[in-house]
């Protein structure tokens, strides 16, 4: 089953053309890693998938909903798309548990009791059961990002988008966050991950996509893209980062 179908997607900011025609299909359970130089449009692309950016042209279909259609109920679609950013954006004045319970209760997906039970279960899966009553400023960056992942999962999304989830972390905390993401991938979550963690992409991705200058320049399995890149720009990029 196709979860995400993007056709001829273009996005401009004023006269700056950032996405110049992106085509992509992502199947259920697939893990796609997006790599590419800074400024190549990776974040913009991800943000177009849940209409955090309005598209300029083309179509974006998520779970059979054309989200570029003005009549689309985008809030309904967004409930099934979890997003995790570089900055964790937790509410500092709410406990870890309250942060995770907020959206499911607010969007009336769950009662308070159900939301609490779900939050506790998710906290355990990200290895933070004992931090339920803690406040975000008292947690490390790696712990906060794991809470942010649990918070996204609390809405029972069927697609997870990650935008450089480990880029703001001290190096010693990167592993614990990637471990949670690996488990999610093993559990069959459909994931699109913008990352500079080439080791993660190599190990976990079903498909690696190299973006540059607003285009998908090259894509393939990790073995293909990392082991035998065809495009000069992919080769140059990988030579710099590997
Ligand atoms: P990446 O995530 O690959 O580093 P981005 O998608 O963040 O790239 O940015 C691609 C280009 O779009 C950059 O030139 C950036 O400055 C520009 N850009 C991103 N968001 C905006 C915005 N809201 N307004 C104007 N320009 C933007
Ligand atoms: Mg970015």
UniProtKB/TrEMBL annotation:
Among SUPFAM superfamilies, the record links this protein to: P-loop containing nucleoside triphosphate hydrolases (SSF52540)
Give the molecular function GO annotations.
Answer: ABC-type amino acid transporter activity; ATP binding; ATP hydrolysis activity
- List residues traversing the bilayer: none
Describe the location of the ABC transporter domain by residue ranges: 4-238
**Pfam families to which the protein is assigned, alphabetical:** ABC_tran
The alphabetized UniProt keywords are: ATP-binding, Nucleotide-binding, Transport
Q: State the source organism's domain of life.
A: Bacteria
SMART domains noted in UniProt: AAA
State the name under which the record lists this protein: Peptide ABC transporter ATP-binding protein
């Amino acid at each position: 089953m196709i979860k995400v179908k993007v056709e001829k997607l273009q996005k401009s900011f004023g006269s700056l053309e950032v996405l110049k025609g992106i085509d992509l299909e992502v199947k259920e359970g697939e893990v796609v890693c997006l790599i590419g130089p800074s400024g190549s449009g990776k974040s913009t692309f991800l943000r177009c998938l849940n209409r955090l950016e309005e598209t300029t042209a083309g179509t974006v279909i998520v779970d059979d909903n054309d989200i570029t259609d003005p009549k689309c109920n985008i809030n309904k679609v967004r409930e099934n798309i979890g997003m995790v950013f570089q900055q964790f954006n937790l509410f500092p004045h709410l406990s870890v548990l309250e942060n995770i319970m907020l959206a499911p209760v607010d969007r009336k997906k769950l009662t308070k009791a159900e939301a609490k039970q779900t939050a506790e279960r998710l906290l355990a899966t990200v290895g933070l059961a004992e931090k339920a009553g803690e406040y975000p400023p008292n947690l490390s960056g790696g712990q906060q990002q794991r809470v942010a992942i649990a918070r996204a999962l609390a809405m029972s999304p069927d697609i997870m988008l990650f935008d450089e989830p480990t880029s703001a972390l001290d190096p010693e905390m990167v592993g614990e966050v990637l471990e949670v993401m690996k488990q999610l991938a093993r559990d069959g979550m459909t994931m699109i991950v913008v990352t500079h963690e080439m080791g993660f992409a190599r190990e976990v991705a079903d498909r690696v996509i190299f973006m540059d200058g607003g285009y998908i320049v090259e894509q393939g399995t990790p073995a293909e893209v990392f082991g035998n890149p065809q495009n000069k720009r992919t080769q140059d990029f990988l030579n710099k980062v590997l």
